[in-house]
From TrEMBL:
Alphabetical list of InterPro entries matching this protein: Dimeric_a/b-barrel (IPR011008), YCII (IPR005545)
Family: Belongs to the YciI family.
Protein name: YciI family protein
Residue ranges occupied by any YCII-related domain in the UniProt entry: 1-115
Organism: Hyphomicrobium album
């Protein structure tokens, strides 16, 4: 099973404040453990929402809202994509993670859909071909 692990944003991350050298070192060590265990598939930090945008949909209409976005508790500051046997194993790995913020923080873990979860259809077959193209 694949999971996305999202590090929730803070006022500091939204202000563009870089993590301390101590935290960067601790995260590098943790990431190395994940990689060596074959758990980590991808991961990165995100720039503040002030450097981003949102595309809103209303039927066939599209509108763009430029950042920054007000609610930091609803924003993501970074992520990992991990492979684990189940949610419990993913939680155990993330409990070992250094606190990503200097004070209170939160990490959210969500299972990713796999193509097999959608059953069979021509549209899913098309997605499978695209997935193979991405891997090659």
């Amino acid at each position: 099973m694949r999971f996305i692990v999202m590090v929730k944003a803070s006022k500091d991350s939204e202000a563009g404040k870089m993590p301390s050298e101590e935290l960067l070192g601790a995260m590098a060590k943790f990431n190395e453990e994940l990689v060596k265990a074959g758990v980590m598939l991808d991961g990165n930090g995100l720039q503040p929402s002030s450097k981003g945008a949102r595309v809103r949909f209303a039927g066939n209409k599209r509108s763009v809202v430029d950042g920054p976005f007000a609610e930091t508790k609803e924003l993501v500051a970074g992520y990992w994509i991990i492979q684990a046997k189940n949610l419990a194993e993913a939680v155990e790995w993330m409990k070992r993670c250094p606190n990503p913020h200097e004070d209170d923080g939160e990490i959210e873990i969500r299972q990713l859909f796999e193509l097999e979860d959608f059953g069979e259809s021509p549209a899913i077959d098309h997605h499978r071909r695209l997935e193979q193209e991405l891997k090659s």
